[in-house]
Specification:
The complex is a heterodimer of chains A (796) and B (180). With 796 residues, chain A is α+β, with helices and mostly antiparallel strands. Chain A has 20 helices and 29 strands. Chain B is α+β, with helices and mostly antiparallel strands and 180 residues long. The N and C termini of chain B lie far apart (36 Å). Classes of the chains: A alpha+beta (796), B alpha+beta (180).
Chain lengths: 796, 180
């Protein structure tokens, strides 16, 4: 007889096809309250509580010495000297990483516009803002480092007075090289170089950050209700700073209005809120304004890539050299550090292409600007743009087709180990490319373009090919030498006596529909309806320690753990059913809420089994524990989904305006647990990628003052700018994950800038101009056309 | 100090009367959230761009962050909470949003469904281009908009046809799970 200690095997989805919930589009359990205005966001909790509100006073200069912060009597002012908490210290265990402390409030020195220097409090947000207006801040301005060029100039001011092993202000200086790189580059028939760059981006979730702190009167325990992606990890960071044991702090994440990476880092403001709530013994809330969100809630993507590819005359990419510079702002973010983009950029090249020899150099440069953090895609939107630009330029220089050169170089045999060590699991790069070409009649576009040119219209088509790394476990993050090494997910699954399933997870969804998709996975394992599965998440008092939601990991890893826990519980149920029905457990199968003897009508309901396991434990078979529960951990190495994006655009040569005429995505996400949710992730990502490609940019002036602090200046696309996004699926089943599912949370943002930039440059080909920086705003497109004209005139 | 500046305002919200004390400078969105207990109206930018706080005043969509509560006195206000019918039956627009996956995080959703519902009530047979124009007044960061457009097009057909035959969801959720 099976017993609880037996390790069950995971049955594949296909063997339970009769009741498969995986693979079906079902409505999300998350939707009804959100649609009716019954969601619970942090600000909603504050609105119903008689709490104090905080307003932060922030530096208006990029670099300076803080002389004084004063407020009239009656204003409750908190400055750095009032706090006992330790600075936040994110760590990488790499020789080139020098730890930089981030104080809770600026102490003596301010390092970017928007850095918090003090907090005031009021009974309403308006009162707190009134009080903030009465605070006087005196700062002696110092020379600011506003760009990479500033930071690397001789005699540049230091953003931090720490000694780096290489150059001043160079916070990360990382290299990697394969043994045969130099010989391969020397032997290459052609060496082709490109440069692309990306402006600063904001993840810009619709809900800015918000936190609410309450204190339990009887125990003194603190509850922080906040907009976070990693509740357990944030608790560790806050407790380390506050010097309190972790059992004193409960972190709860209610509904979150989008995050996209920008709510992953620990918010220094939360330490101030906890300090004041404990001091006063009452609740305190902070609802970030949109302006604060732009100023201080983490930026991303300001990167320059220089690539040189060594090609043979037939277009084979033999070797690749990268030189990557990331402007990371003034501090490091907890826990992933400012190495997140710089190191990922270096390590994930050359993307989906087979290239045996590689030399990479990546630097993270400190500046007096808002610190960077992950934003959906992390490095890969710009990395993909760089590789895809290289393919375009190489095709032109070698006289090859744009599709031809990609087909020649994409990975074709799996698993494939890249020069940087990443293993690409079974994927469909060739099929995806061929399908994209067929669906868009890619090769015939030249005729359409020619026809339009007769009427003075500039049409262009561009593509991007990429792999999306997802579901990375501990081993992948350990390679990065993170002091805090994320990766695994652990779930606890149990039946209550009424036969409903409770699943507790460490992942922390905020819009991805994970409660729905996990319930589908569990439903298949246990033979119950998904509506009987309740998922509990985002509460450190109620969930196992886990790493939250980022890096397209939740469905792959928490989903894998859920499947494993379900398999364990299934064996327990079968054992009890076999005992009740007096048969062999191997003859039992779970279906439609029942445990039934295969091939007969003999059955017992899972509800009855659950009740017996709790209320009549004397009847349980020997060796089974009371109740029905199981715990499982899943810690995969990682899996790659893959995509091809194609954009067709029209560029107005007079205004520089780009219009997207058609957008197609070929996506291979492996097993799609809920196809509608997968497509939602893709479309949302592409829209953000369109913003990245054409509209959105955070701009600082020469003094380091952010000039894009409202939605009138920073322009996310609206429904008028985002076209219909066509999606076609491929389904390569990889055994790198237990569910066969691959992560798709970030792919949309990765592919869109590259496809659109290539399309714009295809449209501009007849002018001789090219744009290599995104966003490709009308001004930049016009400048490219003008520059080409000037070049022609000079050479004429 | 601020007590002296407050005044009593009578608001008619979703057919219910609310008598609230507030400062004249308070926005309608803040008054709905803090004084009427209606937190379904969310604030995304508080400078009139994102449309998350869209509510109806005398049937017309307005930015709840750009109108003072005192300006709504004597007028009829309708919020997302007022869209749901008796027996918690979803409005056709709400129903279409869940069927077409027109929401992910759900933060901008109240603004979109209020805007769409009001438009469809006055324009029962919109074209796709008209809807793109109208709905481009609000921002969403999750969906990429297409499912929102599909949802509203589908809701238009349902509302124009027979409101009585609105389908219930194929898989009625048993309830919302806890987030603590």
């Amino acid at each position: 007889m099976a017993c609880a200690q037996t390790t069950p095997t995971v049955e594949s989805t296909k063997s339970q096809a009769s009741q498969a919930w995986v693979g079906r589009t079902i409505p999300r359990v998350e939707d009804p309250p959100l649609l009716c205005g019954q969601g619970t966001f942090v600000a909603d909790i504050a609105a119903g509580d008689n709490c104090l509100y905080a307003a932060f006073i922030r530096s208006s200069v990029a670099s300076g010495r803080l002389v004084s912060v004063t407020a009239p009597p009656g204003v409750h002012l908190v400055v750095a000297a009032d706090l006992t908490a330790k600075p936040i210290r994110p760590l990488l265990l790499r020789p080139e990483y020098v730890p930089i402390d981030m104080p809770i409030l600026a102490d003596e020195v301010v390092r970017f516009v928007g850095e918090p220097v003090a907090a005031v409090f009021g009974r309403t947000q308006a009162e707190a803002e009134d009080a903030a207006e009465q605070v006087q801040v005196e700062i002696d301005r110092l020379p600011a480092v506003v760009s990479v060029a500033d930071a690397l100039a001789d005699g540049a001011p230091l953003v931090h007075p720490v000694h780096f092993p290489t150059d001043p202000n160079v916070a990360i200086d990382a290299r990697r090289e394969t043994d045969g790189f130099h010989a391969a580059m020397k032997a290459a028939d052609r060496r082709i170089s490109i440069q692309v760059s990306c402006g600063r981006q904001s993840a810009m979730p619709m809900e800015a950050r918000a936190s609410h702190v309450s204190i339990d009167r009887s125990t003194g325990r603190i509850t922080l209700t906040t907009t976070a992606q990693m509740p357990h990890v944030i608790r560790t960071g806050l407790c380390d700073s506050l010097g309190i044991p972790e059992d004193q702090l409960r972190v709860v994440v209610p509904d979150v209005g989008g995050a996209f990476g920008a709510k992953q880092p620990l918010a220094r403001e939360d330490v101030v809120l906890i300090h004041v709530a404990r001091q006063l013994g009452r609740s305190v809330a902070w609802i970030e304004t949109r302006e604060e969100n732009f100023l201080a809630a983490w930026h991303s993507r300001e990167q320059v890539y220089q690539l040189t590819g060594g090609f043979s005359t037939d277009g084979t990419l033999l070797c690749l050299q990268s030189e990557i510079t990331s402007d990371v702002g003034a501090y490091s973010c907890y826990p992933v550090t400012f190495g997140v983009e710089a190191l990922m950029a270096m390590n994930e090249l050359p993307g989906p292409y087979a290239c045996p020899e590689y030399s990479g150099h990546s630097r993270a440069i400190l500046t007096n600007k808002c610190p960077v953090a992950p934003y959906r895609g992390v490095a890969r939107p710009v990395l993909t743009m760089a590789m895809e630009r290289l393919m375009e330029v190489a095709a032109a220089e070698l006289g090859l087709g744009r599709v031809e050169i990609r087909l020649k170089n994409v990975v074709k045999e799996y698993p494939h180990r890249q020069a940087t060590g990443f293993v690409i699991d079974p994927s469909s790069h060739v099929e995806a490319l061929e399908q994209a070409v067929a669906a868009t009649d890619f090769d015939a576009h030249a005729r359409r373009k020619e026809e339009a040119a007769k009427h003075g219209r500039l049409l262009g088509i561009g593509m991007s090919v990429f792999s999306e790394s997802s579901g990375f476990g501990t081993s992948a993050f350990a390679e990065r030498k993170m002091a805090i090494t994320p990766g695994y997910e652990k779930v606890q699954m149990s039946f209550d006596p009424s036969g409903n399933v409770v699943l507790r997870i460490g992942a922390s969804p905020h819009g991805q529909g994970l409660r729905t998709t996990l319930s589908q996975i569990v439903a298949d394992e246990l033979g119950v309806d998904p509506s009987r599965v309740r998922v509990i998440h985002s509460d450190t008092d109620a969930t196992p320690y886990g790493w939250g939601t980022f890096a397209s990991r939740s469905l792959v890893i928490a989903g894998g753990a859920s499947k494993l826990a379900g398999a364990k519980l299934r064996e327990q149920i079968k054992a009890i059913a076999a005992s009740m029905l007096e048969c062999d457990a191997r003859d039992i199968r779970l279906r439609d809420g029942n445990a039934e003897v295969t091939g007969t009508s003999v059955r017992v309901s899972i509800d009855e089994i659950a009740r017996l396991a709790h209320h009549n434990s004397q009847l349980l078979p020997e060796g089974l524990d009371v109740g029905l529960d199981a715990t499982a951990t899943y810690d995969p190495k990682g899996t790659f989904s893959n995509s091809v994006h194609v954009a067709e655009v029209e560029v107005d040569p007079a205004t520089g305006q780009t219009t997207i005429l058609r957008y197609l995505v070929i996506e291979d996400a492996g097993v799609m647990v809920n196809p509608q949710i997968v497509e939602g992730q893709i479309r949302g990502g592409v829209a953000q990628g369109i913003g990245n490609a054409l509209y959105e940019e955070l701009l600082y002036d020469e003094r380091g003052v952010l000039t894009t602090t409202s939605l009138l200046d920073f322009l996310p696309p609206t429904m008028a700018e985002v076209p219909t996004i066509e999606i076609q699926h491929l389904e390569t089943i990889s055994d790198f994950t237990v569910t066969g599912a691959k992560g798709v949370g970030e792919g949309g943002t990765m592919g869109a800038p590259a496809a659109i930039l290539n399309a714009i440059n295809d449209a501009l080909a007849s002018t001789g101009g090219a744009v290599t920086h995104v966003p490709a705003t009308p001004q930049r497109v016009r400048e490219a056309i003008r520059q080409a004209q000037r070049g022609k005139e000079e050479s004429a | 100090m601020t007590e002296n500046r407050t005044r009593t305002v009578r608001l008619q919200v979703n057919g219910e009367r609310h008598e609230v004390n507030l400062e004249p400078r308070k926005s309608l969105a803040d008054a709905l959230r803090e004084d009427c207990g209606l937190t379904g109206t969310h604030l995304g930018c508080e400078h009139g761009v994102c449309g998350t706080c869209t509510v109806l005043v005398d049937g017309k969509p307005v930015r709840g962050c750009l109108i003072f509560a005192v300006q709504a006195e004597g007028r009829s206000v309708r919020t997302v909470e007022g869209l749901t019918g008796d027996n918690n039956k979803l409005h056709p627009v709400q129903q279409a949003f869940t069927e077409h996956h027109g929401l992910q995080c759900g933060f901008c959703t109240p603004g979109f469904v209020v805007l769409a519902a009001s438009y469809l009530e006055e324009n029962p047979r919109p074209t796709e281009d008209e809807l793109r124009e109208v709905l481009s007044s609000n921002l969403c960061r999750c969906t990429g908009y297409q499912n929102i457009l599909d949802a509203v097009m589908s809701a238009a057909k349902v509302m124009d046809g027979d409101q009585a035959t609105i389908a219930t969801p194929a898989n009625e959720p048993s309830g919302t799970s806890t987030t603590g």
